[in-house]
Design goal:
With 424 residues, the protein is α+β, with helices and mostly antiparallel strands. It is built from 16 helices and 16 strands. It binds adenosine-5'-triphosphate (ATP) and magnesium ion.
């Protein structure tokens, strides 16, 4: 046993470690969230954990909380200004443009999985290091693409057994109708009783004020003009198609005219998946269309849509519902050697079993029979292979069913086939 001392390190504030057995749950959730994307033709993309600060200040938006308050920035020894990535979309778009993917067949459909960093006030479900699965479909303006992504996220949650989530849907308009709405909203907001910072926000990004979580602000917004009533004909028709496709696919949604989300780059379709078992950190995932983002980071016109699902919060939501994701199986066979020679022989058997695709583990550390059998039971394996001196002399090994307690001797030279026949 080690004892804790003042010199013991702990994980930084707002972070936590993934440790067995819980880590298996995380892996299973990541797998399940990504599986529908793979089936739908999304290719895997991986970008660095940090980027030039510029990419995010231009791509996420100078006026967002993410850029103004939450970004981890650093200056390298060489003088580069970098930021730990706070989100995935800007990086993925940057990578796609850099690789000229947008000059090939469109849309370019990509998915990713990774760690993101935001300097936030840590709370349950809100961390400084968290994990997302994301998807981006670049270079097509097609309501079916928006619908596809939303359906895939809904499928992903459902495949995990998650039920208590809701899909909120809105349209934020486009470069034609949004400016008109923006001006109307600003005019309304300027008349309200708001603090200095919020007043500044009205001038830079008034839509974000609608997203203010404070009760005192929300109370004043009851009669605020809504984007819904200002959509141009093209945006209205586009949104109607997205809604129809979702309905046809059996995906339930709630129209939420106040949904704006925290990033500047969204246009038209905007959505969020919320879970009611999570308290105030209720968003398990979200996304939308970002037709202007490519140009904002110096690329060509490239209308696109995407989402990011929070792995940490999805795990919490599953726990809140009492649902355990199907985790990858542990060892099927646990090998218990008694004595030095048995150890060498049985270690060889374990290696052969693994090479034949049978998940197997071994009693390391020269444990006695009692302790080793305890480990075998704890491992979750159904079968134990016990090799003692008498078995060795007879050229056999005991194959024990840990559920029924039954055991039989199998010839050592046929042990792999014998185990395979049992284990299936
Ligand atoms: P919130 O409104 O809760 O701050 P957000 O709008 O900032 O969420 P996005 O940038 O859309 O979140 O990220 C997508 C998903 O990533 C969120 O729905 C959430 O599940 C997860 N997420 C975002 N920030 C955090 C965080 N600090 N800790 C854990 N998960 C997070
Ligand atoms: Mg946030």
């Amino acid at each position: 046993m080690t004892t804790t001392s003042v010199s013991t390190f702990s994980a930084p504030k707002g972070t936590y470690d993934l440790i067995p057995p819980d880590s298996a749950e995380f892996l299973a959730v990541r797998e399940a969230l990504a599986a529908p994307l793979r089936r739908a033709g999304y290719g895997y993309v991986e970008t660095p954990g940090f980027e030039q600060v510029e990419l995010f200040s231009r791509g996420v938006g100078e006026s967002t909380d993410i850029v103004t308050k939450e970004m981890y920035t650093l200056t390298t020894r060489g003088g580069d200004e970098l930021a730990l990535r706070p989100e995935g979309t800007a990086s993925v778009l940057r990578a796609a443009l850099q690789a000229n993917l947008h000059r090939g067949a469109l849309p370019v459909k990509l998915w990713y999985s990774g760690s993101y960093y935001r300097y936030e006030r840590p709370q349950a479900g809100r961390y400084r290091h968290f994990s997302q699965i994301g998807a981006e479909a670049l270079g097509a303006e097609d309501p079916a693409l928006d619908a596809e992504l939303i359906i895939l996220a809904d499928d992903a949650y459902r495949s995990l057994g998650l039920r208590g989530f809701r899909l909120l849907l809105n349209s934020l308009g486009d470069r034609e109708c949004r400016p008109v709405y923006r001006a109307a909203l600003q005019e309304f907001l300027r008349r309200l009783d708001l603090d200095e910072e919020t007043r500044r926000r009205i001038e830079i990004n008034p839509l974000r004020v609608l997203d203010d979580k404070r009760e005192a602000v929300q109370r004043q917004l009851t009669d605020a003009p809504m984007m819904r009533d200002h959509l141009c004909e093209a945006c209205k028709a586009y949104h109607e198609q997205v809604r129809e496709l979702l309905t046809a696919a059996g995906v339930a949604f709630e129209d939420d005219p106040r949904l704006v989300r925290g990033l500047d780059y969204y246009t038209r379709t905007t959505f969020e998946f919320v879970h009611d078992g999570l308290g105030s950190q209720s968003a398990v995932g979200g996304g939308g269309r970002y037709d202007g983002l490519s140009e904002m980071i110096g690329g060509p016109e490239l209308p696109s849509v995407g989402w990011a699902l929070g792995v940490d919060r999805t795990v919490l939501a599953l726990r809140a519902e009492g649902v355990r994701p199907q985790v990858a199986a542990g060892p099927r066979v646990y090998a218990v050697p008694l004595g030095e020679e048995a150890r060498r022989t049985l270690f060889g058997v374990v290696t052969r079993l693994r090479r034949e695709g049978v998940a197997a583990d071994f009693a390391f550390g020269g444990k006695g029979l009692k302790n080793a059998m305890k480990s075998a039971n704890r491992s979750g394996a159904r079968w134990a292979l016990v090799l003692g001196e008498r078995d060795l002399a007879e050229g056999t090994v005991q194959l024990k069913d840990l559920e029924s307690g039954e055991q039989e001797a199998v010839p050592l030279d046929r042990v792999v086939t014998a185990v395979q026949a049992k284990v299936g």
